[in-house]
Amino acid sequence: MTRALIVVDVQNDFCEGGSLPVPGGARVAHDIGVLLQHWAHRDPGAAAYDHVVATKDHHVDPGEHWAKEPDFAESWPVHCRVGTDGEAFHPNLDPEPFDEIFRKGEHQAAYSGFEGAAQDGTTLAGWLRAHEVTEVDVCGLATDHCVRATALDAAREGFATTVLTALSAGVAPDTTERALDELRAAGVAIG
């Protein structure tokens, strides 16, 4: 079996100090960063991944996804605008170990990393299949939104999927718990 880690949207705007912060976002960035350093250096005891990829919100003009008066369900404050610091990975997270980065949502809302593409146009599902990945672990921000959507799509695409809650953070406890229940019901393991 070939195993990959999918790091979802660990960007400045989703961490403390950003335009749409998730409580604990900077801690998640730090903890994933530590895991990636150990993995990249093949340290003893490092996570056993064959590949590590990331997703990024990458908005140019996502239409009604941005709103002056957001409802925080379908519309949100301006975030992850291309060319801004908010779109960059959090400084606790060194992007160098990523085998590929999948950008999503240039001109529409996009929650799942499976809606994104690499610079050459390859989709996340296509990339994983080309690298013979059968299992994925999903982590990042936010558990109740983009982590949820990415993990659900991973399971739909036929990958054995686990969400790593210790390396993820949710916007709110109630929506996070509902998301985890939905993930379990879809056959996603919660680790």
Automatic annotation (TrEMBL):
Domain of life per record: Bacteria
State the organism of origin: Nocardioides eburneus
Recorded hits in Gene3D superfamilies, A to Z, give: Isochorismatase-like
Task: State the family named in the UniProt similarity comment for this chain.
Answer: Belongs to the isochorismatase family.
Task: Please report the name of this protein according to its UniProt entry.
Answer: nicotinamidase
Q: What enzyme class is recorded for this protein?
A: hydrolase
* Protein's pathway: Cofactor biosynthesis; nicotinate biosynthesis; nicotinate from nicotinamide: step 1/1
Recorded E.C. number(s)? 3.5.1.19
Q: Which SUPFAM superfamilies match?
A: Isochorismatase-like hydrolases
Please name the InterPro entries in this protein's record. Isochorismatase-like_dom (IPR000868), Isochorismatase-like_sf (IPR036380), Isochorismatase_Nicotinamidase (IPR052347)
A Pfam family found in this protein is: Isochorismatase
